[in-house]
Amino acid sequence: MLKPKHKKLIIFICLIFFIILVPSHGYPDSAVPTVRVKVFDDISTLHIEGKDIQLIDTYKNLYLFRNPGISYIIVSAAKNGIMVNKALFPARMVTLIFSGGMVRINGKSLRGHLEIVNIDNKHLIVVNEINLESYVAGLVNAEMPHNWPIEALKAQAVVARTYALWQKEKHLDQYFDMDTGFMDQVYLGADAEDNKGWEAVNATRGQIITYGGKPILAMYHSSCGGETENSEDAIGYKYPYLRAVKCNFCRIAPNFNWKYALRFKALADRLIVKGYNLSGVYGFEILKRSRTQRVMTARVITNRGNIDLDGVTLRGVIGYDKLRSTLFWAQVKDNEIFFHGRGFGHGVGMCQWGAYGMAKKGYNYRQIIHYYYQHVDIERMY
Ligand SMILES: [Zn+2]
Description:
single chain; 382 residues; alpha+beta; 3 domains; nine-stranded antiparallel β-sheet; three-stranded antiparallel β-sheet; 9 helices; binds zinc ion
């Protein structure tokens, strides 16, 4: 039998271990890598609310501004400097320091290390360096509804973590690793973190998808419409793990089937806005399809000759939310193009609605990942 004094000591030691070992939300952990996320792009004015706000010249490591207590400051870009509440500081890049763990910039809650960069004397960008696990938690909820099955959210967490690390390697010489927008991943800030996101993140902590021991380019999209795409047909580069697979799991997706009608006149206007030289459109035809039937080349017949566009460029001209994928067919009738298509997004890698469908059928996140990415391993990095 242990003496009561020893018992108390053991309970105390266990408690200390428990406190140390249980991961706490959002706090830095030296083993976890950080990512630099561009949270505001080309913005002229920042409204910053926080506690004990300080601004430091990042390059010279000099204090520029201190404001103890709760404060609200306005920061804007100026010629060769940064304007803070109408005072000019000759710095290109400033680091924002605050207490209380969180600050609000233009209504968005942010944590971690923040840098403000004057990019062209008129506009600022804001870069948020945060630990990868916090980033993934915010992202999981921005990318997938929180009421989706946990195995789908776990798959999204591993995929998002992997994609972030791949991006980080690619952007070593730039101010940031990740955009927050459409082409990178959607990061809404700390407001988007919730318990379900953290549950998916903590259950897969440090896990990434690798090929040959390196993080893969873990592309993903909303829904594939029945079959995913080979990477070389979508982005021009063949990755051995981004191969087309049949997907019968995303039939429930809202854009599994979609329609869109566009008049020739409207297509002409959109082409002119994008800088093409024409004044009228007279015809439209599809010239080439990929092995999965996605449009590789489409021809627009105009008064200035033919314009051949690849499917992705055409989506950019018409609008990514209008021409929702390149898996479409088109009929021309009375100066109008009637598109009907399947799926939403580029079609490469994981189909998010497919992950939802697989999780509903009882597959776990590992099975989901191995279904959409071939010959890969799931490894724990930290
Ligand atoms: Zn699918």
